[in-house]
Amino acid sequence: MKKRICPACNKGSIVDLKKPGRRTPYRNIPDLEIPAELAIPTCDHCGEEWVDAATSARLDDALKEAYQSVLPAKVENALRQLTEAGVTQQELERLLGLSVGYLSKLKSGKETSTQLIGMLMMLAAEPSVRVDELRELWRTTTSSPQVVETKVTEQGSSMRMVITDVLPSIPAKNVSLSGHDYPRGQRQTTENVVEASGRFGRRSAS
Asked: What is the rounded distance in angstroms from the CA atom of residue 9 to the CA atom of residue 173?
C-alpha cells in the first residue's frame, strides 16, 4: 500500500489507528466517546485525523450505537439519585404524565426520549427543590385547601365548604357568608353572596 503523507505536517504518515479516549460532540452529548475498536486514519506524527467517506459512514454507525448505550445509563443514574432522595418511580410517572412502567422501559433502553431523559437529569440534580416545585406547579390551588364544617339551621342540614380563596383582612369585623360569620382573612369559596362591610358583591359559581 502506498504511503500517505500527512498534508497537515508533511512529516508523518497517515495510518489506521485504534485507540481509547477519543471523544466527539454527538447530538446533545458534547463528549461522546468514540469506540476504541474503530480505526480512524490518523497522522502518526501530528495526530491529525483524516476521515474519508467510508470512515465517516463507519463512524456514524459506531456513534449511533454508543449513543444508544449511554442513554439508559443516564436514566439509571438519575432514577437512583431521585430514589435516594425519597422520590419513587411511581410518583415520577404520575408527575410527568407517563404510563405505569414507562420509566423501567426507558431505563432498559426499550424506549427512548431524550427530552424526558433531560428532564429526569434536571430533577435529579436537585431533587429536594425541583420535585417539590413540580408538585406545586401541578396544583390547581395556590395552597392545600382546608375544609370547614358549618350548620345551616334553617334547613336543618350540614354544609361542607372547601376553602381556597383568601379574602382581604377586614379590621374589627367578621365576614358574613349567607348569615354565617367567619373570621376576617379566612379562606372560602362559595356561590352564595359574600358580604364584608359592604365591600364585596355576588360571586357566581365557576
From this structure: 89
Q: How far is CA 86 from CA 82, 123, 128, 152, 194, in A?
A: 7, 13, 9, 44, 43
Tell me if 8 sits within 8 A of 43, measured CB to CB: yes
The whole-angstrom distance between residue 169's C-alpha and the CA centroid of its chain comes to 38
Question: Over the stretch 42-79, which tens digit does the pLDDT of each residue have?
Answer: 999 999 999 999 999 999 999 999 999 999 999 999 99
Position 96: which residue type?
A: L
Q: 46 φ, ψ to 5°?
A: -100, -10
Coil/strand/helix, residue 152: strand
Computed from CA positions of residues 149, 150, 155, 157, in that sequence, does the dihedral angle turn out positive or negative? positive
The more confidently predicted of residues 3 and 161 is 3
Cell of 12: 508523518
Q: What is the CA radius of gyration of the chain?
A: 32
Tally DSSP H helices, then E strands, for the chain. Answer: 5, 9
